[in-house]
Amino acid sequence: MSLQKITPEQHNGVDEIIIPFKGSSQLKQYIRGKSYPWGIKLWRRAGAPVILYDFDVYQGSNTQKGPDSIGVGCDAVLRMASDIPSGMNYLVFADNFFTSLALMERLQQKGIKYIGTVRPNRLKGLDLKSEKQL
């Protein structure tokens, strides 16, 4: 059965995962902080009970850039969200590696809502309070 044939839930999370791998491969990556930091890196979209709806093998930052690229992580979210129905109140969650204003605008144009933490350096042009002021 194809993953795309499963009707997605309203809430979808996008994340990077690592498949532990000790051998030699051009796909082998290191992700700091993971319990198994060396392996094959995947982007994935999953539902609440961790049903995998879509995945993509990471092949390096230069291999997946197109003319409309908005960054490696943001592009991964857009690819993972490409099969989510538009304008039906679907919600995508991701962490600060993926989040940017450009990503939120692109998803909003598709009628998909987004929730995610954001890094301060990805909010160019916005005047925010410092962490001390908060």
Principal-axes geometry comes out as globular
Please estimate the helix content.
10-25%
Report the CATH architecture: 2-Layer Sandwich
Strand content: 25-35%
Strand elements, count: 6
How would a textbook summarize the main sheet? Answer: 6 strands, mixed
Fill in the CATH topology.
Answer: Nucleotidyltransferase, domain 5
Mean pLDDT: 87
Uncertain residue segments: none
Number of helices: 2
Please give the radius of gyration in angstroms: 16 Å
Which H/E pattern describes the elements? EEEEHEHE
Distance between the termini: 49 Å
Structural class: alpha/beta
Protein name: PiggyBac transposable element-derived protein 4
Domain PiggyBac transposable element-derived protein: 5-123
Organism: Plakobranchus ocellatus
Give an account of the 3D structure.
This protein has 134 residues and is an alpha/beta fold. It has one domain (3-122): Nucleotidyltransferase, domain 5. The protein is 13% helix and 27% strand. It is built from two helices and six strands. The protein has helices at residues 72-80, 101-109, and strands spanning 11-20, 28-30, 38-46, 52-57, 91-94, 113-116. A hairpin with a 5-residue loop joins strand 3 and strand 4. Helix 1 (72-80) runs parallel beside helix 2. The chain is globular, with a radius of gyration of 16 Å. The termini are far apart. The model has no long low-confidence stretch (mean pLDDT 87). InterPro entries: PGBD. This is PiggyBac transposable element-derived protein 4. It comes from Plakobranchus ocellatus. Residues 5-123 form the PiggyBac transposable element-derived protein domain. Pfam families: DDE_Tnp_1_7 (PF13843).
